[in-house]
Amino acid sequence: LIAVAHLAYAPAPQIKGRPAMAEFGVSVATTARGKGFGGRLFERAALHARNRGIDTLFIHALSENAPMLKIARNAGATVERDGGESEAWLRLPPDSVSSHVDEALERHMAEWDFQFKRHMRTVGDFLDGVAEVKSRIRKVRDRSDDRPGGPGSKR
Predict the structure, then answer these.
(1) What pLDDT, on the 0 to 100 scale, is given for residue 38?
(2) Eight-state DSSP code of residue 11
């Protein structure tokens, strides 16, 4: 894994009379930072939350966590700093037929991509096995050619 996100929410408003909200968090491996993985996971989480009746995303981060705060700001969130900690709030639009179709398409494309890569790995493993068998056959032939009385020797 190079990046993972969490979206924590209750399926109904947590406080009576207030809209439902969810908390978003993300972790990206040091070697994969700066490539947009966190932002992409944020977009996916926001769409997922929106389609489940969540109308506000909440992000809690250290003020020094510039990449996380940048993701929030780029999405249009309001960021409030309080010393070493920051909170970001993003209002989500209500779900629509289009947002549900978008989510379904993303899910199916991700599944297709995963299955394609899985099958390509299987094909690659098979071809590696064939190459190994060919290599062993070649070694056995080479050894038999080197023996006295072998196919390559003179009698």
Answers:
(1) 93
(2) S
